Amino acid sequence: MKLLFSCSLLLFITAACLSGSASSRKLRGISSSYKRFYRERRSFLCIDGSRVIPFEQVNDDYCDCEDGSDEPGTSACPRGRFYCTNLGFRPHYIPSSRVNDGICDCCDASDEYNSHARCQNSCWNLGQKERAYVEGQMRTLDEGLQLKQQLIEEGVLLWREKQAQLRELQQVAEDLQIKLEEHRRRKQEAEQNLKALEAGHTRVRRQNSSESTFRLLDSNNDGSLSVEELQEKLVLVQEEELLLSEEEAVALMGGGRQMDLPMFQQSLWDVLNTEERVKIRGSVDAEDPHLKAADTAAEREASSLKKVEEAYDTISMEISDLRTKLAIDYGPDWEFLFLNSQCYKLSVYEYTYTLCPFNQVTQESAAGTEVSLGRWGMWAGTPKNPYSQMVYENGEPCWQGGSRSTTVTLTCGTETALRRVKEPSKCQYIMDFQTPVACQTVLKQRGIHSEL
Amino acid sequence: MATFTERMAPVLVLWLAVFLSGTWAVDKGNFKTCDQSSFCKRQRALKPGESPYRALLETMELTNTRLTLQLINDNNKVRLLLELYRLQGNMTRVKINELKPLKPRYEVPDVLIREPPTEPLSLLSQDENGVVLSLGAESQRVILSARPFRLDIMEGRDVVMSLNSRGLLAFEHLRMRKDTSQADPEAEKKEEAEPETQPEAAKEEEKDEAGMWEETFKSHTDSKPNGPSAVSLDFSLPGVEHVYGIPEHADTLRLKTTENGDPYRLYNLDVFQYELYNPMALYGAVPVMLAHNAQRTTGIFWLNAAETWVDISSNTAGKTVFGKMLDYVQGSSETPQTDVRWISESGIIDVFIMLGPTPKDIFSQYASLTGTQAFPPLAAVGYHQCRWNYNDQEDVAAVDAGFDEHDIPYDYIWLDIEHTDGKRYFTWDPHKFATPKEMLQGLMDKKRKMVAIVDPHIKVDCNYKIHNEIRSRSFYIKNKDGGDYEGWCWPGSAGYPDFTRTDMRDWWASMFAYDQYEGSMENLYTWNDMNEPSVFNGPEVTMHKDAMHGAWEHRDVHNLYGFYVHMATAEGLIQRSGGVERPFVLTRAFFAGSQRYGAVWTGDNAAEWEHLKISIPMCLSLGLVGISFCGADVGGFFKSPNTELLVRWYQTGAYQPFFRAHAHLDTPRREPWLFGPENTALIREAVRQRYTLLPYWYLQFYNAHRTGEPIMRPLWVEYPQDPATFALEDEFLIGRDLLVHPVTEEGARGVTAYLPGKDELWFDVHTFQKHNGAQSLYIPVTMSSIPVFQRGGSIIPRKIRVRRSSSCMTHDPYTLYVALNPQRTAEGELYIDDGHTFNYEKEFIHRRLSFASNLLSSVNLAPDAQFSTRSWIERIVILGASKPSKVILKTDDGQESQVEFDFDASMSVLTVRKPGMNAGADWSLMLQ
């Protein structure tokens, strides 16, 4: 700050010395560092060395030098530039074409010395604003850098925590793996046991004669099966509690209401042997409690295996998620890590935009439709500062091909927030995202840098 | 910011249904072929050589100003009335209408700038076969033959043009519908008069019945309450092999024969992704054709605003060059001849035959009928930056700043439809453009301007002032049942104001007043798009032909709609300034006479090399028929150009009259600085070349405004006797003195430019290298090359201090480029005015600059005009000069002074340093 101020003061003195002197025309539009080229002599050498011209032709509103150096103070040269001293503010060059074009470009009004434009000297105001702005920026930067330090520390902790979490999860996964194998083995054993018993049972069933089954069903032993007898003895495999309806019983009897043994052997006997949905009430249980126990055991083992498998899958997913997360570049000090799993919103006109760093960007309309504006792609800043820009890609497809994408520019600020969203071209969004972790120590130097 | 579906919801379904064909190109099926247009099909089926029309010589009346005569159709006995006028300026007008039509037939109003003044006709001889009339003092005669009726326009012993020589005159008389009227008086008459031909005639009418009273295309039915009403006439052009004009078509400059396909169609249509090199109708229609050979140029102006088809055939079209040579050697060659046939759906035949004989005579003849190019404000000749859409005020400010940052000049930034509040024209989006005056003031502070779109479709919304006013005044076009016609367009359901009404146009113009058009300021100008009119759900994306404009059907006036929208808008911009300021209005649809109201562009082109190429013939064709202020969207509207194409398009556009970059909503940004510093520099240089030449461009506009001559012109206009120029369309002239051969090939290493004129010299404007005329010159090119040549014998004024905008350059000094011809002479003009008001009619500087005998002088061409300028002459560059010993300037006060100079012997270029005289003064410069 002090440096800028004192330089301006120096310029002020120089300008004051020059004003009113006969050579002011010659010196118009020249910075002090270039003054050595314009010492009053008989001739003037174009700065590119291409030509020597009489000194009267400097700033005489005619372009003699290819490089425009003979007309620093007029609009005569297409490639020329005019130096605005801008006492009190930043000095800078403008193209010669802006000299006397009726538009005030230099805040000291020096570019419009021969035009109808009424330019006010606004350099002190601008300078003050600039200084206030720079001060503000510096404060922000200082604060931001402090916050950043905290966030870095938090980031490191978070990183360690996540690493620990990963290790923990991996341990759990390993344990589960062992358990899984154990359960698989047990399930297999139970199943084998059940299969063996079932095979024996089938053989038993096959050995039962049609006569004995007929007798079993013929409750009143009258040599004929009735609808009521079937309803009493037969059940649906799926729903043992429910009685067969009369219609179902009639249907099993082939439409009649009575059935003798020969008819039974021709029809219902085959049905009972092949139809798996109908069985004789209590037949199996009653016949083989071992089978039933084996069946229950097999079911129990299968279900506990499933539970372990599910647990394992969940853990694996968590590990994979965490690995993906940890594979992302969160900056040299993991300072951007805290942004992961956060989301930031901003409403612009009828839309609400949500940026979930390292995850995705979405746009929600007032009507509630949500559209993806891209998923985390990569860092895309400058080679010098790769962390100044993020790209989110492969969002919702666009009408004429391609898909939506978002470029997020990170700027230094004291809080973390989404500041601006734009769609300069269809389906290409840009966002300004402010966060202390984007604060860079280099910025600090630029703030006090001066031309002189 | 919206997703496509949300933003486009109202029109999405339509767009998808109507326009998206899945492939990249126009969906031809959406537009009619001649076969699908019943009148065209009927008329085209007529066989030549069977004309039923006979002139009834006994009905001839010859007054001082016109000849009238009845024609009879011997098949149906319907009589027509022929009127023949000799017009001042070597033109003949032929009008044919029904003698007693059932109801009046539409005659196009408002296109002619006045009733064309006539000259006396005199009868030279007459017998039972016909009459011979003299056309004024020259040896021109008209021979009117009676049976069949035919007109031959003769010059000496040569036939210049014949009408109905192939017997294709056809006039579908208005008639009662058969099922509604038993007693057809004509049929009765026919029976009485010629009972023997009756069966044949009846058969013919039966055959023709299809499509006469109702016609369906796709899902649209045209109710055709007036039945068939087409008119048609053929013209023969002996000795002619080259015909031009009848824009707008995306086709070659030289029109093709149409025997093997559809005729050229003139029917203003919003064609989505138009295809190149075919005769399909586009956004505008100018029914004017030019015919040219080495001896003579003639023109045909067919004044009819209904759907029109033009057939062209030629007896040499099929022949190869060898075949033609063989004919010549064997001496068996028949005279080459082009035959043209015009077919219109309704109205009358009203045709102006422009007899030249030079191309420039044609331009002045046509200008005397329909007027000349509006003289635009100077800024409009600068560069225009457009995009669908600049999103908000911040965006506009950022783009504006981008031009300054990259030191590229521009004059106008444009806003497309998204700037409005829900596509309600004359309004602003309350969020994105909340403070339009602030924005406009910001531009004004930089001496820049803005164009905002105002389309003619009006959102049907009872909270919208414009709609309510139009509805309450009953200004909307009506549908066939008498209600307000409604169609779909950008806003959804929309009404279409009836611009054919004078009171409607007056009201519309009043809406541009600063207190009516809120947020507007004097640096806001207007763009009329979609004025064909575009109706998304209408037949062929336009209005139903049975919609009603008062007593007339849309069928009758269709091609005039855009013309009237443009007229009313331009009038609005004039009125808001109390008649002081020149308007600038761009239109997409146009008709004959549209040149009087502003600029046109070639519509929604695409970012493809072929589209860049065709911008040349498309604008050349428009220039030939009076519309000089023409341009194509730089970069291409649809799709995204690669960098090379974008740079080449800037380089080409910088040398075309209307220079505007534009891009579709769905394409990535393409402001000039987005393609790396090298390409930014190339584009900057192209735009800067445009700005250095603004004094020359402005002079061309002034001359176009005074004479009707095209600004961008084909070479044959200046070299009418050199057949090598007749079909050139990859190069063109700006005025007389600059020849431009832009690079329009991808990856080009060189171009071959034809430099015309065997006595001419051409100077490369960049290197000052001299080339002889009448040669094809190979020019090696790099990405920075824009081959441009200045004609030896010309003087071109430039302003080489290129600034932010044209207005910033107002007081800048001039550099004169004097290019000497072999006789070591040169001539040019300098025109200066205030650049934006109508005061130019009295207050301007117009000087002739001439160089002869080593003396360059400036002479006042308009001593009565008053204007003073601060501009002076800073430099004079003489190309092809020899080294003088001294250069002496003599100013108007008689003072003589020696002026410094620099001589480049290798290129023979003399540069006179800072002579310093005022650009408006008399002076002379002597080389000794």
UniProtKB/TrEMBL annotation, chain A:
Gene3D superfamilies: EF-hand (1.10.238.10), Low-density Lipoprotein Receptor (4.10.400.10), Mannose-6-phosphate receptor binding domain (2.70.130.10)
Source superkingdom: Eukaryota
GO molecular function terms listed in the Swiss-Prot or TrEMBL record: calcium ion binding
Keyword entries, A-Z: Calcium, Coiled coil, Disulfide bond, Endoplasmic reticulum, Metal-binding, Signal
Domain MRH span(s) in chain numbering: 341-441
Signal peptide start and end residues: 1-24
A Pfam family: PRKCSH_1
GO BP annotations, alphabetical order: liver development; N-glycan processing
InterPro entries hit by this protein: EF-hand-dom_pair, EF_Hand_1_Ca_BS, EF_hand_dom, Gtb1-like, LDL_receptor-like_sf, LDrepeatLR_classA_rpt, Man6P_isomerase_rcpt-bd_dom_sf, MRH_dom
PROSITE patterns per UniProt: EF_HAND_1, EF_HAND_2, MRH, PROKAR_LIPOPROTEIN
Residue span(s) of domain EF-hand: 205-240
Gene Ontology CC terms, in alphabetical order: glucosidase II complex
Chain segments annotated as coiled-coil in the UniProt record: 159-247
Database matches in PANTHER family: GLUCOSIDASE 2 SUBUNIT BETA, N-LINKED OLIGOSACCHARIDE PROCESSING
Full protein name: Glucosidase 2 subunit beta
Taxonomy of the source species: Eukaryota, Metazoa, Chordata, Craniata, Vertebrata
TrEMBL record, chain B:
One Pfam family matching this protein: Glyco_hydro_31_2nd
Signal sequence annotation: 1-25
Classification via SUPFAM superfamilies: (Trans)glycosidases, Galactose mutarotase-like, Glycosyl hydrolase domain
Protein name: Neutral alpha-glucosidase AB
Record's compositionally biased regions (Basic and acidic residues): 177-192
Domain Glycosyl hydrolase family 31 C-terminal: 708-796
Enzyme class: hydrolase
Enzyme Commission no: 3.2.1.207
Keyword terms: Endoplasmic reticulum, Glycoprotein, Glycosidase, Golgi apparatus, Hydrolase, Signal
